[in-house]
Amino acid sequence: MTISHDQAAWFKQTFDQLTDNMEKAVLGKRHVVRLALTCLLSEGHLLLEDFPGTGKTMLARALANTVQGSHARIQFTPDLLPSDVTGVTVYDQHKGTFEFHPGPIFHTIVLADEINRASPKTQSALLEVMEEGRVTVDGRPHEVGRPFMVIATQNPIEQAGTYRLPEAQLDRFLMKSSVGYPDKAATIELLVNAKVRDRAALVTPVITSATIAQMGGLADEVYVDPAVIGYVAEIAEESRRQPHVKLGLSARGCLAFIRVAKTWAAADGRDHVVPDDVKDLAVPVLCHRLLLDAEAQFSGVSIDTVISRLLDSVVPPTDRVV
Known about the structure:
- Helix content is about 45%, strand content about 15%.
- The chain has two domains: about 1-80 and about 105-220, P-loop containing nucleotide triphosphate hydrolases (Rossmann fold, 3-Layer(aba) Sandwich); about 220-320, Magnesium chelatase subunit I, C-Terminal domain (Helicase, Ruva Protein, domain 3).
- The chain has 15 helices and 13 strands.
- The longest helix has 18 residues, at about 5-20.
- A five-stranded parallel β-sheet has the order 3-6-9-1-10. A two-stranded parallel ribbon has the order 2-11.
């Protein structure tokens, strides 16, 4: 069964309330804030790539403070070990047993700051927990609970001493976005209130973890017409035929498209997905999943150009499939 109009209206009202609350810390970036909330309600993970000082960490902390749950920040460095993330089993001499000491990954929202500065071995510690919601230490699985979200940040500059995220890990991020520099009005407001050292501290919880789970359940019930499903499938097939594309959209990417489109539609107060939802989310869903070949860089072809051509080449549906 699909969600009712009243449920969709409540979803939109609550979503707007969360967005307004987060904008206390992240000024003039409503679209990015909505993407982050969509990612959380779709039970996915978000990758933020932007220049230093644009507010990536502030956005992550504002989201964590909005939800009445626990949150942790992991500063990724080259000497960080996998056990520093997942936890470790320690022998208790008094009890004569081994006890598991959970790491910072066992929180509602986890900020993985500058994730590309850690070694591939440490990065791989996130693969299982991001996909299955649990970590395995010494052969024993440990659930992290729900809701659970990883927000990772990385800088596109200062690449010395960094480790590029492999495609398998990039595909596990539901969306990728950037905060970008604030506009003039937002910059002026920031400077006027320069005495506020920590804007994320202004954000107080307005929703519980249980309500997050409830909203996620409602988003799952948003109706997706077979015509829209076919549209996403055609985009995936066409992405693999595009010039300069070495790796197209995967099946996991198609599922991500449908999941976020449902949440995006509910956030707009609708009980069904329209093709424009797919178009609106194309860049954050596709930009880290499409891998370009070496010739693309020499030809001056960017990932945004490829996505634009992809959407132009696939005609969106205009009629429902009965």
